Amino acid sequence: MLKDITLGQYFPGDSYIHRLDPRTKLLMVVVYIVALFMASNWLAYGLVALFLAACIKISMIPLKAITRGMKPVLVIVVFTGVLNLFFTPGTHEIVNIFGFSLTWEAVERAVQMILRIMLLITGTFLLTYTTSPIALTDGLERLLDPLKAIKFPVHELSMMMCIALRFIPTLIEETDKIMSAQKARGADFESGSLMDRAKALIPILVPLFISAFRRADELATAMECRCYQGGEGRTKLKQLHYTQLDFTAYAIGAVLILGVLAAGRIG
Amino acid sequence: MAPILEVRNLTHVYSAGTPFEHRAVDDMSFSVQRGEFIGIIGHTGSGKSTLMQHLNGLLKPTSGQVLLDGVDIHSDKKFTRQARFRVGLVFQYPEYQLFEETVYKDIAFGPKNMGLKAEEIDRRVREAAKLVGLTDAQLEVSPFDLSGGQKRRVAIAGVIAMEPEVLILDEPTAGLDPASRAGILENIETYRKTKNATIMMVSHSMNDVARLTERLLVLSGSKLAMDGTPAQVFTRADELLDMGLDIPDVTRVFLRLKQLGLPLEPVYTIEQAVAAVKKLKEGK
Fold it and tell me: What are the start-end ranges of the H helices in B145-236?
């Protein structure tokens, strides 16, 4: 049920993608997104899709997990597709339904939009699938390092992100447990009017909030007990180092951008 | 007599088809008679919680069946809902599920969901509260103002107020002080006697299960490893210790005495131990 939410979930592994430096992966996702938004024709889309498919293959993440992660966003994808289908101006009309004309351009655009969103989501999913939250925030902290010069609280920000990410699965599990317990007392979340269903959430939300606050409090106490204080003078357990693998990845990224640019010229 | 609950070849697999795939319950079969007091023991991760959630239809078996009074729990949606009320389930640390403004309202949550009349709800709430030892004054305070042990009692009363035929409890005394532990175990026993209810209790305290239960289910590695009376189960002390489980303190003492050469048979409750020692003394 709720456990099936794969958002932000990490799949442990030892593939080339897993072994990349988190900074590389973060920057590569940016490169990938830029490439995706620069894509203007089928050839370019094909290139981006091919790149992603290769990454998935190398990462050895089961395809099933990736398609399952897509499920929650399917509504948005379909919605965007339908909107584009009817609101794109074009000249090659196919049919006309109640004054809305359906054109070839619109169909092409809708398919491209759907493809773009799906590629975007899958690409970013791949990042969280192959990078543990801790590595991710470590990487982000290092990337944002220059901002420290303008007194931006980089370490605090990454710490907050790390904690938030860390608590997603815990809170999902907690919600699951509370839901089961209230269901065991006959709570019904699946039937009734909208108002009834909203009311049915109270027995879940109240205990959930209480437990979230309790956990936050306990964590704060535990951190203070260990004399935790911000980033100043703090050393890392895991030092980040670029390897040959990372430079190869950057090179591939550059090729991808150039490829998409070239494809745009041809098309 | 027809069993109240029957579990047939129950198997449950979590997250099938992902790297997290986990077979939590593997081909378990047993049946439960009305009025039995059953202890469930097993190491953490042996499948106890998963098994329990099948018994009231919260989880759907991957394969196999759970029969309540001879009817498959998942045969009909309405019946599944009925099963929730007939098989009451008290989760681990149930005090974390309290949410209402007053203790009274929280205990009334279950009976209300059953669609009972106001007077009947009132009767059940007061009866359940009395059974777990809550005073009338406590019924009107916020559950969050109570102590940990009292919160636990409120949560248990919330399930008892549904007057289930089978009451399942997952470590009802975990993390409580000795006085509260004894109180809650006594409440459970009282409920069983007054309603002729079936009790299934998960516990890590071998002393408790040895003293209270008539039958033990031992789970190990997602499988049902043993099913028998405490006497039968605790004579297999070596196997239990291998599974990472314990035996009652008094059994441990007697096994050691036997090793030292005293002609003693293994016992598992204090009463039996007293009788055995007396007999030995008189025999000399």
Answer: 148-160, 178-195, 206-212, 230-235
